[in-house]
Design brief:
α2 packs parallel to α6. Helix content is about 35%, strand content about 25%. It is of the alpha/beta class and about 210 residues long. The chain is built from nine helices and eight strands.
Length: about 210
């Protein structure tokens, strides 16, 4: 639901009023994806991470639904979950008429059944959860056999104190839960962020047996 930049100024996920932030959330280039180049860059990455066939996708911490919309446009059935009701309202409006449903709930324990999804998609949420290992184990139970995680995370800031989840830590947490794991660095692609960045940003795609 966030890109982590809020925390660099000293706020954590729990310190941000996401209901109040909803109205301006899409103003960030990588949130609203309003710039055609930024939108195209995320669409291309998402297409490379998601199954080629239509799939059931769970977007956790979906925010205003920008990635959900890209996934729906690529033929996937999307269920989005976010703790903020105003964010969910914006996502529902953004995907009106699409094959998508949005729920208000905790991304760490979403109000959905087990083994229902082919993809669990999470962008910039896991870093802020108090026990990411436990959360990943729970999310693993939401995936069907042969499903996949698509996790976009990072470490924001280049001088201490930094916040986030380094790629090596995330892959270590995933190791007992998945088979194949692919790490894709994202920092060098300024099109994704609408600007140059020099901190660690990456995606992990991991397949379950």
């Amino acid at each position: 639901m966030t890109n982590g930049e809020h925390t660099i100024t000293g706020a954590g996920m729990g310190d941000v009023d996401w209901d109040a932030a909803a109205a301006s959330f899409d103003d960030e280039p990588d949130h609203g994806l309003r710039d055609p180049e930024v939108r195209q860059a995320w669409a291309a990455r998402l297409r490379s991470w998601l199954p080629e066939r239509p799939s059931d996708l769970l977007d956790l911490g979906c925010g205003t639904g920008s990635l959900s919309l890209l996934a729906a446009e690529q033929g996937h059935h999307v269920t989005g979950v976010d703790r903020s009701a105003p964010m969910v309202d914006l996502a529902r409006a953004k995907l009106a008429g699409r094959d998508a449903a949005f729920l208000v709930g905790d991304a760490a324990a979403p109000p959905v059944g087990e083994e229902r999804f082919d993809v669990v998609l999470v962008r910039h949420v896991l870093w802020a959860l108090p026990d990411p290992g436990r959360v990943l184990r729970h999310w693993r139970g939401l995936l069907r056999p042969g499903g996949r995680f698509v996790l976009v995370e990072g470490v924001w800031g280049t001088t201490a104190p930094t916040v986030g989840v380094p790629a090596d830590r995330l892959t270590a947490l995933l190791a007992p839960l998945v088979g194949d794991v692919r790490v894709e660095p994202l920092s060098a692609d300024a099109r994704l962020w609408g600007k140059d960045v020099d901190d660690e940003r990456y995606a992990v795609v991991a397949w379950v047996d």
